[in-house]
Amino acid sequence: QEVWGVLLLHRALRKLIHDTALVEGIDPDRLSFTHTVKVVRRQVVRRALFPPPPDGPDPGRGDR
Questions:
Q1: CA–CA separation, 2 and 4 (whole Å)
Q2: Where are the domains of the chain?
């Protein structure tokens, strides 16, 4: 299962690189996989550190 997880993550990051290159009009090979990993990791950590609302999720807003 770990191998499949790593392969799935690799595929998702490559898709992100490809989509970004298409939007920017550049060759996907010019974008760094390592830099992409660092950017995604930073974003995931930033979101994980953001505290939840003090009173919990609000079902009226669609929070889970």
A1: 5
A2: 1-25
